[in-house]
Structure formats: structure tokens, C-alpha cells
Design a protein that fits this description.
single chain; 149 residues; mainly beta; five-stranded antiparallel beta sheet; two-stranded antiparallel ribbon; 1 helix; globular
């Protein structure tokens, strides 16, 4: 299935191989010593997404490079406010899931610094039979200055 992003561009399905070495490295980075698929593992899908805004790309400046410290050139330009993982069955080492990105809800709230604009984004992970295995939901916040009344 091909989705459209908020700019109307088509977003293709992205294969996400669940490789033993990747699972092990991710678990160890979190202090786990077992070869288990930890609950936050679906975020590792970003390593396979060619359009992930915070992924380093050869020959391009990266926010973490120190070239322009403190200024983010990737991502949504806002704050990462929330992350949730929902499972419909366990993820199994050796399978390849298909990741499908889609937009979720948007809402606004007034704050001291201006208007807080919330945006929800989902990544659905399907198995080879098309069954939904897991869903990652993230919420980002961008602040815009309120217009004078």
C-alpha cells in the first residue's frame, strides 16, 4: 500500500528486516544482555528509512556533526513529545516486516511561548501475510508565535 504524506507525496512501504545482530546491538545499547526484541525496538526502523530526517547521509551536514551546534537542520523543527509502541503479536527475529508511515491527528493549544501545534505520526508494521504486528505512534510539538490581537 502507498500512502500520501501531508505534502501530497506518495510514501512507499519500507522493508524492515528483523536481523539478529541488529536486535542484539539495540538490546545491548539499552543495557539488556539477552538477545531479545525489546519493546522499543521498532524505532530502529529509522535505519532502513531513506527519508528519516535525522538519519546521517554521506556528503550532507548532520545536526550532530558540531558544524552548527544547537541548531537542528533535520526532523520536524520541533520537540519530540511522546512515543508509544503497541503490539498485536511479538516481533520475531528472522522475519521482514513492512513499515507503512501515515499521518495521525493534529491539535493546538495556547501556551506562554505561543501556540503549541501537536502532530501525531504512525508507523504500522505488517508481516508477510499483511497482518498488523506493531504500531509506533509519535507526537511532535512545534511552537508558533500567537498573532497579536
Amino acid at each position: 500500500m502507498i500512502e500520501s504524506d501531508e505534502g501530497g507525496r506518495t510514501v512507499p512501504d519500507i522493508p524492515f528486516p528483523i536481523e539478529q545482530g541488529h536486535v542484539r546491538a539495540f538490546a545491548r545499547a539499552l543495557g539488556e544482555d539477552a538477545d531479545v526484541v525489546v519493546p522499543t525496538f521498532p524505532i530502529a526502523f529509522s535505519q532502513f528509512d531513506p527519508d528519516w530526517p535525522l538519519r546521517m547521509k554521506p556528503g550532507e551536514p548532520w545536526n550532530g556533526s558540531g558544524a552548527d551546534a544547537g541548531r537542528s537542520s533535520g526532523g520536524t523543527g520541533g520537540l519530540h513529545a511522546e512515543q508509544e509502541f503497541e503490539y498485536f503479536r511479538p516481533i520475531r527475529v528472522g522475519e521482514t516486516l513492512t513499515a507503512r508511515k501515515r499521518q495521525g491527528r493534529t491539535w493546538h493549544k495556547s501556551g506562554r511561548a505561543g501556540v503549541l501545534n501537536f502532530a501525531e505520526r504512525h508507523v504500522d508494521f505488517h508481516d508477510a501475510d499483511g497482518n498488523l504486528v506493531a504500531r509506533s505512534t509519535s507526537v511532535s510539538v512545534r511552537i508558533t508565535k500567537e498573532q497579536p490581537s
